[in-house]
Amino acid sequence: MAGVHGHPASGVEVGTSGDSDAYYAAGYDYDPNSGRMDYASGPGLPTGGSGGVGYTYLAGSDLLSQVQIRNAGGAVVAWSRRAYESQRDVIDYVESNLGSTGSYATLSKYNYTNDAIARRTAVVTSGEAFGGSGNERFTTWGYDARNELTASRRYLGDDPNSADPNDPVLLRTVRYAYYSDGNVSNITVQDGDELKVKDLAFYYTENRAPWMMLWSEWGVDANGVYDPNDVYTMTAGREFRFNGPARFVSRDFNPNSEYHDFVGDQQWTDGADDYVMNTS
Hints:
Elements: E1 9-14, E2 24-30, E3 37-41, E4 52-57, E5 64-70, E6 76-84, E7 91-99, E8 104-114, E9 120-126, E10 137-143, E11 149-156, E12 170-178, E13 184-191, E14 196-204, E15 210-219, E16 233-242, E17 248-253
Antiparallel strand pairs: 1-2, 2-3, 3-4, 4-5, 5-6, 6-7, 7-8, 8-9, 9-10, 10-11, 11-12, 12-13, 13-14, 14-15, 15-16, 16-17
């Protein structure tokens, strides 16, 4: 298989004895000096001539800089860019664009803030996919001493430095809690300044395999702390069981019944909702 640019190439073909690529063909070009992939062609990409996807790299490194979709004439019609912090190999922002590299519309951009140990602490989202100019949003993240994610807050605006947990532009807060072994114990969601949260609690077996999940709702005060005067409501439950080889099955139950009665006549099912009778 010849390379698009005369570089070393490889690929895969599926066809017949008379037509080796009758059903499927994909080709890959590599830079003869670095050995890095610099071009690919195949299903889902522009065809003919130089049609396909090209890769460019940050000067003096192996870090991917751009992915360019090119038409049969080799012109760029869509592309994405990854930019990195100047002092380390940590992503600064990622954007996807429609058009050439000289004239384009930004479909989406994720502009990250990273802390001293390269944890992502914030991201600003913008572009046409998010409603265009004036509709920017940003998310901030918090961590504990073990670098576990503890909170994710979503705001209106484009300045993560203005983030305030009690700011009226707060759209959603997601909090995370963990067991001592690192398994997630709870994921709690609070929309805006609503004085109610939705919680997903996780329980595990002795060998740390998933056992049960419970969905609940309860009231909180302005600081997100449980309000003992509000009604605590369990809304749904799901139990898991390992049904080898290498798959889990589950079934829903009513967490408010005395014996956790199962919902309807539901049997154990796998992830595709196929009924599985054998759970031994």
